[in-house]
Amino acid sequence: MKHLLTIAGSDCSGGAGIQADLKTFSALGTYGMSVITAITAQNTQGVDAVVEIDKSMVQAQIDAIFKDIVVDAVKIGMVSNSEIIKQIRYSLEMWQVPFVVVDPVMVSKSGHHLLQPEAKDALIRELLPIATIVTPNIPEAEVILNRQIVTVDDMEAAARDIYELGPKSILVKGGHLEGDAIDVFYDGTTINRISSPRIHKNNTHGTGCTLSSAIASYLALGYDLTPAISKSKDYVTKAIDSGLEIGKGVGPLHHFH
Ligand code: PLP
To answer: Is 252 among the domain residues?
Structure first.
């Protein structure tokens, strides 16, 4: 059994964040662990409140796990502020891990800031260089590069430029453009367009969290990056297709075993 760790924020409604990550790990047959960086009070309609966890407690959680348990892959999601980000970088340098998937979470679908504006530079400087793969959507790639992305060619240029910031590979997710959902993958040598039909479903809360956790799981299970991404996309597509009608807003995905 592979051991997966998510370092991310809690979503009490169970759709995104730590909860989505743990459900994905279980569904893909891995053992899930969690280091909580922030607690959010949220539901399918939006985020009501956020409390950030002190960096010393983030460190204590990471240390408690690594000094006792082998970690096969880490997924990093919501990291909130620059103090927490620097702590994560420091701790993961001390405790080496084979795969690090960085989902640069910034703003929720409902418009709530999950990354403090002051923390953007720290995220770029501290977390991108340790990433096996970084998985921004278009708005996140735009913030990272400070420019607009409106075409798939722009996405390719963005993938090449974000690669220069240090990650071993990058997946720019094209769900925010019109038409078929086209993602762009770049690993420093080949650039690939990965196309999948757009599914018109309302219940998509936690999609990004789920994709990055699935990629971390498949990497730990021994898949190379390209098959890990395509298997993860299949998993997310099925999970969106049978998303759950829970609550009054944007409901969660359905994690099948
Ligand atoms: N809440 C937390 C704690 C998250 O980590 C994320 C992840 O991106 C979200 C909310 C956003 O979820 P979504 O944008 O899918 O609603």
So the answer is: no
Please check whether residue 145 lies inside any domain of the structure: yes
**Average pLDDT of the segment spanning 136-151:** 96
pLDDT in tens, 28-47: 999 999 999 999 999 999 99
Task: Indicate if ligand 1 lies below 6 Å from the C-beta of 6.
Answer: no
Q: How many domains does the chain have?
A: 1
- CB count within 10 Å of CB 47 equals 21
Check pLDDT > 90 for residue 22. Answer: yes
Domain-embedded: residue 122: yes
pTM: 0.97
Q: Is the CB of 17 under 6 A from ligand 1?
A: yes
9 in contact with ligand 1, CB cutoff 6 A: yes
Domain assignment present for 49: yes
Q: How far is the CA of 217 from the centre of ligand 1 (A)?
A: 19
Residue 32 sits in which domain range? 3-241
Which is it for strands 100-102 and 133-134: parallel, antiparallel or unpaired? Answer: parallel
| 108 Cα: distance to centroid of ligand 1 (angstroms) | 5
CB atoms within 10 A of CB 248: 9
Strands 73-76 and 46-52 come out as unpaired
53-82 confidence digits (pLDDT tens): 999 999 999 999 999 999 999 999 999 999
